[in-house]
Amino acid sequence: MSASSFQALDYLEQLPVQTHRKLYEQPSTVLAIFRCMLPHLAKSIVMALLYMPSSFPAADLDAWFRAESSQTKRNALSILEKLHIIVSKQDDERKPHYELYMSFASSLRQALEGSGSHRSFGVPSHKSEERRVSVEFLDKYSQRQWENILFYLVGGTVGFRNPGGQDIGQGTKNLLHLAGFYNHSRITQDGFTFVLRDTNAQVWSLLVAYLRNAPQQRMSETDILNFLFMLGSLELGQDYSTATLSATQLQMLEDLAEFGIIYRPHKSASTFYPTRLAVTLTSDAGAFSQATTTASSLGGGATSKGFIIVETNYRIYAYTNSLLQIAILSLFTHMRTRFPNLVSGKITRKSIGKAISYGITSAQVIEYLETHAHPQMQKKKPFLPPTVMDQIRLWEYERERMETSQGFLMKGFGKVEDYKEYVQYAKDTGVLVWQNDKLRMFFIDSIEQVGAKIKRDMQRAAARA
Amino acid sequence: MNAIDASEHHERVDESVPPSLLAIVLDTNPHAWAHLSSTLPLATALANILVFINAHLASGNANSVAVIASHSNKSCFLYPTPAPSSPRPQPNATNGDVDMNGTTETTSYSVQDNPNKYRPFANVETAILNNFAKLMEGTKESHLEATPTTLIGGALSLALSFIAKATLLHSPSTSNSDEAMLAIADPEAIHTSYVSLASRILIVSVSGDLANQYIPVMNSIFAAQRKRIPIDILKLAGDTVLLQQASDATGGVYMKPERPEGLLQYLMMAFLPDPTARKSLVMPSAGGVDFRAACFCHRKVVDIGYVCSVCLSIFCSHDLPDNLCLTCGSYLSLRAAQSNPPALIPRKKKKKKRAGADSATPGGSTPAGSNTPMHA
Amino acid sequence: MSGSDYSGSEYSGSDDEYVGPRGGGSNAAAARRMVEAQQQQAKKAERKAQAWERRRDDSSEEEEYVPTFEEVEDTDVPEKSIQQMEEERKRKRLRKDTKPFQRGIIRHVVLVLDLSEAMLEKDMRPTRFHAMIQYAQEYVREFFEQNPISQMSVLGMHDGLCLRVSELSGNPADHITAIQGLRTPKNPQDFSKEPKGSPSLQNALELARATLYHTPSHGTREVIIVFGSLLSLDPGDIHQTIKDCVRDRVRVSVIGMSARLKICTEIVSRTNAGDESEYVVATDQELLRELLLATTTPPVVRTSKSAQAVASPESAAALMMMGFPSRVVEDTPTMCACHGILTTGGYTCSRCSTKVCSLPITCPSCQLTLLLSTHLARSYHHLFPLRNWAEVHWQRAREKGTKACLACLTPFPEPPPPDDTHREKDTNGHGVNGGMNRFVEQAQMDWDESGEQKASESSRYECRACESHFCIDCDMFCHIVLHNCPGCLSKADPPDRRTGEEMEITP
After folding, report:
1. In-domain check, residue C148
2. Which of C86, C409, C490 sits opposite B151 (nearest CB)?
3. What is the value of ipTM here, to two decimals?
4. Which end of chain C, N or C, is more open, meaning fewer C-beta atoms within 10 Å of its C-beta?
5. Is A312 on the interface with B (CB under 8 A)?
6. CATH code of the domain in which C401 resides
C-alpha cells in the first residue's frame, strides 16, 4: 500500500455505513477498494471468505493465523470492519463468526468473474481508429495541466514563472485554497508537503480535498467516488462514452479535465479519454514514471526514473530540464550551474535554513530526494549518503533550539523546605518541566494537582493557626 | 543517529508488499482429466482458475501471472502468449500490467468492449482461453496414444526460466552485468535495496506417475530451492511423491483436496496468499514426506541401499550380474561396500601408521624445523 | 575461471583413460568413447595453447573493459557491440566442458588456508586474510550444496606449522564455525590464528595426505590450497612429499594470490598428471571468489599409471552401502548421537537405529553413510550436464524464424534483411547445420562446445538437441542454476538429450 492510498483510506473510513452500502453496489468501486485500500492480509481474509459457502468461525480464523502475527490480524480485521466489508455475527451456539457484507461480496464476485450487467468498468465509445487521440498527446496534456497546478503553488516562492504554461482555472485555485495548500497568495506548509510528494500521492490528496468539498457543491460523494474508482480501471488511449454518467459525474468531468486527469476534445463532447493520471489512480506505480514517451518533452529525462544524484560532499546533480523540478529543487538547494540536461547545486546550511523557514521539514526534503534518487543511487542502501541525511536533520534541529510549552510558573516560596516539598511533589506527579533552586521557581504544565496540594496545605496551616 | 536512520528506512521498505509473480503450471493431461470428468471437468476447472488468477492480480497492483500448460505431448505458455503467434512489445517487468497490455493484439474485440469486466482481467482471460483452445485443437490422437503422462519437467523449467528473467528485469541493476550475474548465481549475495519480486509456482496436477522425469524435476526443484521460489502443489488426482518432495523442499503448500469440485475455495484459501501474507498465516504443507529412496532395479523402497559410486544409481541388493552397474556398466567392487575402513587391511595398516606419524608432527606444537618427515 | 575448465585435463602422456567402460569392451558406446578420447588427444596441443591464451585475456579483459551505466545509456551507435561484449562476459562463465565425463561425485577435499603474514597484505579489502575467510565460508556452503555426499576438512598454514581447523566431515556448519573461529576464537585460551610467520607447503601436504589416507578409494582425494605467500618454509624435501601425494592419488589445486611459483606449478602438475591448469592466480578479490567457487564442480575422474600401481583399478568404482533413514517425530527431546544435543525428532540409522539430527551424515555408531535420496539427486546434474548452447547466426535465425526466447518470451531483435550474401556464404559452412553431413559436423560441434563460448550476433542461443532458441539470460540461468533445457523437456518426441548422454556412459 502506498502512502497515497492511505489518505484515501482515511477518508473512506470516516464515511457512514449508508455511503459504504451505496458504494459497494458498483463492482468497479469494490474492486478498486479491494486492490488499493486494504492491507495485504485483509485481502487474504476477504478472498478466503469470498467463495466460502458458510460463514467463517472466528476460532478457525484464529487458527489460520500464526500466533505471532495476531497484531496484524487485528489490524486487518479492524480496517475491514470500519469499511463495513466484514461483519462479525454470532451463531446459534453464540460463537462469533465472520461474514462478508452481501453487497460487497456479490460485487467483488461480479468483478472477478466479469459477470453481471453493471457496466461499471466504463463504456468504450465506438469510434474509428484514426480519430482517436494518441497516448503521447494524452501524456503531454496531463503533464502540462498537472505541472501548471504545481507551478502555481511553488512559482511565487521560487521567483520564476512557468514560461509556457497558462494560468490555472478559478475552480482549481479555490480548491487549492480550500485544501489549505495555498493561502494569502503564498504556499503553505501543507502545500510544500503536497508538492514534494510523488505524483500519485499528489493526485489523491487533491481529490480528497475535492471530495470534502463536494457537499458544498451539492455533489454526491458516492457518485464522485464511484467515478474515480471507475477511472482507475479504464484503459489509456481508449475513449469512453459519457452516456452512462450521472449528473454529478458530468459536472466532475469539467473539473477533472482541468486537473489533467481526463481529456475531452471539447466541452460538450460525448466522450472522454482518461489520462495516465487517471488510470494509475488505483495502482502504486507513479503516474509519470511510465510515461517514457514524454520523457523528452516537458519533463526532460527527469520523469523516467530517478534523476537526482547526491554526493557525500552535499553536491546535487539532477539530470533534468524540467523547470518544475528545478524550481522544487531550488527550494532547498543552492543552485550553481545549469546545462541543457543537468543542473547542479549544493545543499548548504543556508539553503536548508531557507527551506525550513518556508515550512518545509527535513523529512520532506529527504523523502523527495529519496523518491527521485537516480537508479545508480538506488543500488545502495540507504539511497542517500547517511552523512547528508543526518546533516539535513541537524540543520533543522538547529533552528529548533527553543521549545515552547504552556503551563504555570510557581514562585515566591517563603521557605526552602516548602519549595523543595512542592518541587518534589510536582516531580512525583510528573508535571514538572523546569526548576531553578536559586530563584526558588519552578514551571509545571498542569496546575490541578499542585494547586490542590497548595490549597490543602494552606487550609491545614490556617486550621493549625 | 545512523542507527536510527537505518531502522527507519528498513521499516519503510517492509511496509510495502513486494509484487508477486505467480506462475501456474496447469497439467492438461487429457487422460487424467478424462478420469475426473464426472466430478470436475477441465472446462470448469479452467474457469475456476481464471477467477483465481483475477483474484491474484487484484491482490497487488504490480502482480503478474504466467500460465503454462503441461500437456501430454508438449508444454507451452498459455499466458503470456508466446511470440510466434504475434510479435509483442518489450515486456517491462517493473510493472506487471505491461504484461497484460502485451496481449491486447491477440484478444478478440468483443471482449475488449465488455464494460462489465476489468480490462486487465479480460485481457488475461481471453489470451488464456484462446491459447488453450489452440492447444486442444493441436492435440492429435497419436499424441495421446504415445504417452499417458504429462511433461511436468518441461513446464517447470519454463516457469523457472520465466521467473528468473522477470526477477532479473525487476531488479534495477540489470545495466550492471556483474550484479546481474550474481543475481543469477546466488540471489542472497546481492544487496539490492529494491523490494524484489516475490515469485511462486503453483502446479495444478492431475497426473500420477512422473518417475520418467525424475532428474529434470529434481533439477527444477533444486533450482527453485536456490532461487527461493516456493512450489505449491494442488493435487486433484493421482499421487506422486516427487511433487510432495517439491513442495516440501521449497516450502510450498501441498494439498490433495478430497472433493475436487470445491476447487475455487481451495485455491482462494490455501493458494492465494503470497509469500508476504504466508509469513503470518498457517499454511497446509505436505506433512510427512517420504524421502526414502526407491531402488533403480525393482522400484522397491529401501532402507539400506547400494549406491554406484560412478552414477549414483541405487540398488536394493549387492548381487549385481557380473558386478556391473545396471545403469552405467562400471565394474563395481563390493569390497569397498562392506564399509570396512581401509585401515584394517594389514599391508595398509603399516603405511597408515607412518602416515599418521607424519601427520602428527606438523600439527603439534613442536617447532616446524625439527619435524623432517622420515621419507627416504 | 580456467580452474573450472576441465577440458584441459588430458595431458601428453597417453596413459590417461576413462574408468567407465572398462568392463564390457566390445560394445559400440565404448568404442565411441575411445574414438572421442583419441580425438581429444589429437587436439591436446591446440588446447594447451588455448588455455594459455585464455588465461591471458582473462586478466587483461577484466581490467580493460567495464561498461558503465552512462555508456550504455548515452551512446547509440556502438550499443550493439557493447551488448555483445556483455553477453560474451556472461558466457565466459559457461566455458565448462559439458561433455558427460565421469566425475568424482564422492569427493574428499582438504581446504588449506594460508595463515601466514603474507595474508596481512591489503591488496584485497580489508586484508587478504579477511577476504579469504569470507570467501572460504561461502565456498563451504556452495561446496556442500553441490556435493552433498562429500567430505571436507579445513587446514591452516600458520607460522611454519599446519593447523587442523576442522576435522574431515560432511557437515557444513562445523566447517563454517571453525573458519569463523579463525577470526574470532570462541575459546579465549585458543591462541590467536591471525596471520603470522611463514607457510609450509610440505607440512600442509603431509597433514592433508594423512587426513585423506583413510578415505575410501572410490572417492576423490583433493587438496585445495589458497596460497598468498611467495615462499614456503619447509622442514624437509618437499619433492618427496609430492611423490607420496602422487602415489596416494591426492590431487592438489593451488589458488595463488601474488605471483606464479615454480614449486606450486610442480606440485599441481605432478599431482594432476601433468596438467597445470589447476594452478591459478587470483589477481583480484572477485577473481579469487570465482576461482574458489569454480572448484565446487566435481573433477573429472582419471586414473594414472602411478595410481594403478598402488590401488587396483577395480577399487576406483565401488558399490557403496548407504542408509536411507526415515524421519522420526518425537514429542519429548532426546539426545542425538552426532552432536549430543537434545532434539525433538531426527532420523534413525537404518542399520543400528541410532538417532542423528541432520543428514547427510555418517552414522556415529556403525559408520553407515546416511542420506536422503534428494541428496543423491543433487549430484545428477554433474553426471548428466546440460550441453552448452550454440551461437546463432543471422542466417540461421532467419531459417528458424524465432521471434522470442522460448523460455522467457523476451523478443529477439529482428534479423536484418538477407541481402548480405557474402557473409551468408561464410556462415553457411560454419555454424549452420545443413542436415546432410550431420555426423561429420558432430565432431566439429563437439569441438565448438568445449571451446570459447562467444556472444551470438543475433542474441539467440540454440540448444543443439531441440533446436529451440533462447536469450542470454535464460542461457545463463539454465546452465548455472537449472541444468535443464526447457526446450527439450517441453516436447514429447525431441531428440532426447538425456538418453543420448546416458548412452555415452553406458557401454
Report:
1. yes
2. C490
3. 0.73
4. N
5. no
6. 3.30.40.10
